[in-house]
Write a structure and sequence with these properties.
The complex is a heterodimer.
Chain A lengths: L3 E2 L10 E6 L4 E7 L2 H16 L9 E8 L3 H19 L1 E11 L2 E10 L2 H4 L7 E2 L5 E5 L2 E9 L1
Antiparallel strand pairs in A: 1-5, 2-3, 3-9, 4-6, 5-6, 7-9, 8-9
Helix pairs in contact in A: 1-2
Chain B lengths: L6 E4 L2 E4 L9 E4 L2 H6 L2 H10 L9 E11 L1 E9 L6 E3 L10 E10 H4 L3 H11 L14 H17 L27 H7 L12 E10 L2 H7 L5 E8 L2 H21 L11 E3 L3 H35 L7 E6 L1 E10 L2 E10 L2 E2 L18 E4 L7 E6 L3 H5 L2 E2 L9 H7 L2 H10 L3 E3 L3 H6 L8 H11 L2 E14 L1
Parallel strand pairs in B: 3-4, 18-19
Antiparallel strand pairs in B: 1-2, 2-3, 4-5, 5-13, 6-10, 7-9, 7-11, 8-9, 8-19, 12-13, 14-17, 15-16, 16-19
């Protein structure tokens, strides 16, 4: 599991994340050399909905496991697993390492408790929707995206 | 939206006749200007909903409709279990029973203004709001289940409110047939520290002034007059509802395939009402409605305590509490008589008209108060249900202004600090832990709520009673 964190690498083939517009909410999208990296980059995009991931320290590790019948539902489950941990532990995450095996995902997410004064969190995320949900090859690379409800 | 796609039925009604997989027409209630501004996705989503099994009469979009998840936000659809009708988690949404509650204060502007800042500070410090905030009430397993079965009635029984509050809440404060046993451990865990919290995003608590009265008789019946101060609370079922929505979306996406239901969009995930997943969802969703009602009841108690300290003469009786993300079993007249239907309202408010048997005696003459939340700079509205709404859209009306631009666009357009300063210059005190959140929720990011309400009024979905404008706004 090669971890993906908030500090962008300079290599031209580096994975990256982005947001895209949805009327009332926000789309999160990750790109990477592998499905795992695309999922991890999308997780950074999820954190960025709340705060700048570069301001989140990767101090504590939380294990996340989920499964689903296909890649797209599994991607939504991954984000929803993170959303659950963010909500119940009141944490933000900035570094992710994950493994995909068939229909199962195991991951580690590193982060720290929300510090309202320092992180200035904009909004809490309610859940990952299936709106524009897509996991697909993007040439030689992978892309994973969906809209999150805030 | 391209008007050429629609057949105009009146100044505020536009129809998409059945075609392809549509079982019924889709009807959009809005002015021409609002329809032109609507995202084409509303068209697609209203059409997709019209193709779901067991849908009755039509798939409706309210004047504030915008691109949602499967269903448009501002969508109304009713399903008949006798015709293979479905229930859809996406048709209710993640924030189950999100809604608006309005409290009288018995105060006038002149009472409030000398302590406006003190009140704003006290509300901000004592109402838990924003990401990571926790409430002071932590429920053990048995109490969690009691809350999920009892709703606002549970909260009142525990001392967070008054018995007379209950008749001013839909379902008299307690959604029947809730199934706490169908709410997962994870959903309950997510709620453990969130009772009595406001949340974030578009949720708020406002102290408002009545700045216009459109229907003096009805306003008097509701107990509001020009210059009165009211409190409005907008929030929902917090983490518990979000988790139930998340879990059943997945279960229904799988169930729909198993039941041979072809979905144009996975977000339309649904299950037959008479199926194990459908019944499990209904039980859990009703428990989440109770969670939202209990949450708004606890927030009401917190507000009353703050007022008791700052403005002790205020009594704060409840005007009304509406939910705008629900699926409820209601009896409606359709072409072949009265039928018991499962009415989904996603970003739409129930709007029972005068004489409706489910309304308390005190509201039977006027119809149900319909509370429409606007943005923090433009104000909100109080409407009343109409008899006509029954045949127009299963007694439903709009729920808010609806966003005019994305959060990203809003962030590029405004800075939180200047939004707060601009509103302060207009006499509106905004308190929030997040300036970025304020920018994302800037008044300009929303559609003109007045145009939405005017369209609802003109269409006959509900009738305008009064407008209120904020003096204090607490944002999560």
């Amino acid at each position: 599991m090669k971890p993906v964190d908030a500090h962008p690498r300079r290599a031209p083939d580096a994975g990256y994340w982005e947001h895209y517009a949805h009327g009332a909410d926000i789309g999160v999208r990750g790109h990477g050399a592998s499905k795992e990296e695309a999922f991890a980059q999308a997780a950074l995009a999820l954190t960025a909905v709340v705060t700048d991931p570069a301001g989140v320290a990767a101090r504590e590790c939380v294990a996340i496991e989920c499964e689903a019948p296909d890649d797209e539902l599994l991607f939504a489950e991954w984000l929803n697993g993170l959303i659950y941990e963010m909500a119940t532990r009141r944490m933000l995450f900035a570094r992710f390492a994950l493994r995909l095996e068939d229909k199962r995902l195991t991951a580690e997410a590193w982060g720290e408790p929300v510090d309202a004064a320092r992180h200035r969190p904009a909004v809490e995320v309610k859940g990952a929707t299936y709106t524009t949900l897509r996991v697909a090859r993007d040439g030689a690379r992978w892309m994973a995206q969906t809209v999150v409800d805030v | 939206m391209d008007l050429a796609l629609l057949e105009q039925r009146s100044a505020t009604a536009w129809e998409i006749p059945p075609r392809g997989a549509m079982r019924v027409p889709a009807v959009i209630y809005a002015s021409e200007a609002l329809v032109r501004d609507m995202d084409h996705k509303v068209y697609e989503q209203a059409v997709n909903v019209a193709a779901l099994p067991g849908i009755v009469t039509a798939s409706y979009a309210m004047p504030d409709a915008h691109w949602g998840y499967g269903f448009p936000i501002g969508g109304v659809a009713a399903f008949d279990p006798d015709q293979g009708g479905v229930v859809s988690a996406g048709g209710v949404g993640f924030d189950i029973s999100c809604g608006v509650r309005c409290l009288h204060t018995g105060l006038r502007r002149s009472d409030l203004m000398p302590v406006q800042t003190e009140l704003a500070e006290a509300l901000y410090h004592r109402i838990p709001a924003g990401v990571g905030s926790t409430g002071s009430i932590h429920l053990n397993g048995a109490e969690m289940d009691a809350m999920l079965a009892g709703g606002a009635k549970w909260a009142v029984d525990r001392g967070w409110g008054r018995p007379e509050d209950l008749e001013r809440i839909e379902e008299y404060g307690q959604m029947r047939d809730a199934r706490p046993d169908q709410v997962s451990t994870r959903a309950k865990r997510r709620q453990r520290d969130e009772m009595g919290t406001l949340g974030s995003g578009n949720h708020y608590l406002e102290v408002q002034e009545v700045t216009a009265v459109f229907d003096a008789d009805c306003a008097a019946h509701f107990g509001v007059a020009l210059g009165d101060i009211v409190v409005m609370i907008h929030c929902g079922s917090r983490g518990l509802g979000h988790q139930i929505g998340t879990e059943f979306l997945k279960r229904m996406a799988i169930a729909a395939t198993q039941h041979g239901i072809a979905l144009a969009d996975r977000e339309l995930a649904c299950a037959p009402i008479r199926s194990p997943v459908g019944q499990d969802y209904l039980g859990a969703m009703r428990a989440a409605i109770n969670c939202a009602l209990a949450n708004r009841q606890i927030l009401t108690d917190l507000v009353r305590k703050v007022f008791r300290d700052v403005l002790p003469q205020a009594r704060l009786p409840l005007l009304y509490d509406v939910s705008h993300n629900t699926c409820k079993v209601e009896t409606h007249r359709v072409a072949d008589g009265a039928r018991k239907l499962y009415v989904h309202r996603k970003g739409a408010t129930r709007a029972f008209g005068p004489g409706h048997p489910d309304l308390p005696e005190s509201l039977r003459a006027t119809g149900q108060p319909v509370l429409i939340g606007g943005s923090m700079g433009t104000g909100s509205y109080l409407l009343a249900g109409t008899r006509a709404s029954e045949t127009l859209a299963f007694s439903s009306a709009c729920h808010g202004a609806g966003r005019a631009m994305s959060r990203h666009q809003a962030l590029r357009s405004w800075q939180g600090r200047s939004v707060v300063d601009d509103l302060a210059a207009r006499g509106i005190l905004v308190k929030s832990p997040s300036m970025r959140g304020i920018a994302e929720e800037a008044p300009g990011a929303y559609k003109d709520v007045a145009a939405v309400v005017d369209a609802a009024h003109a269409a006959g979905l509900a009738r305008k009673v009064a407008r209120v404008e904020p003096l204090v706004c607490i944002k999560g």
